[in-house]
# Entry
Amino acid sequence: MIQHLLDGILVGAILSLGATGLTMVMHMLRFANFSHAELLSIGAYVALVFDPLFKALLPLLSAQIGPLSMTWALVAAILVAMALTALSAVLFDRLVFRRVREKGEELSMVFASFGLALIIRNVIGLVFGLHTKLYSQDIVFATVLSRDPLILVKPDQVAVLGVALAVMAALHLMLSRTTFGYALRAVAENPALAQVNGINLGRMIVIVWLLGGALAAMAGVFYGLTNQITPVIGRDLVLPVFAATIVGGIGSIHGALLGGFVVGIAANLALVVLPSGYSPSVPFLIILAVLLVRPNGLFGEERA
# Structure
């Protein structure tokens, strides 16, 4: 039970990063972006490409960071992945979503996101193949926290949790203590009124896509670091990420952060009573439960 709880917290940190970007996009542009989870795949594979490249160009970066399987080259690759994935998110908006937004309706945006997700997933599979990949072939042994009951934690998991919590704290401060945070909330609540007050709507949309893409890339790399890298990362995580967003309440950053942990813990605790094959259905059941009991989520507000 305790082992499943710890695993759920670690998974929840990754889901929280992915859900934060999704909830900002959904709140501002008012559509369910099913292609958001594919940004996690893009980030994971961009890091996979640049990690060996940095090791070859700068051998000093090949050194491992303490007990982690992560090297300094991978840290640099994560930063590149965040930048390129953020730019990809803006590019997808320019090529697809903005055009549909100007000519179509919200439902058309949802269909467009479905199509874009399929394209991204299949292009990744075509370029990198369908086999699973790893950032490191080195075996990192788990640390035994307790023998009765047996509790194991890998150093990589602890590092991922620590970095994710630090990013969440920085994001909270940025959104709650800066002019950008106030402007973002104003645009999300009433775009027309925000524009009247001098806020550049187009610029805010670009910034939201950049933030969402960067956070998704980090989540994708962390998922690949603690699991495996496959072209179907987006397919596997789209439902948990959406569940985290809905549980927290669409548009609520704090809700998305909490929702990620709720979904991660619930999915792992379900393994205590359910066969592992039923675990993917848990996020779907959580979505149904939240929509029935509190449709606006834990921190969401009703919108006109």
The first strand starts at residue 143 and ends at 147. The first helix runs from residue 2 to 29. The CA atoms of residues 192 and 284 lie 35 Å apart. The radius of gyration is 19 Å.
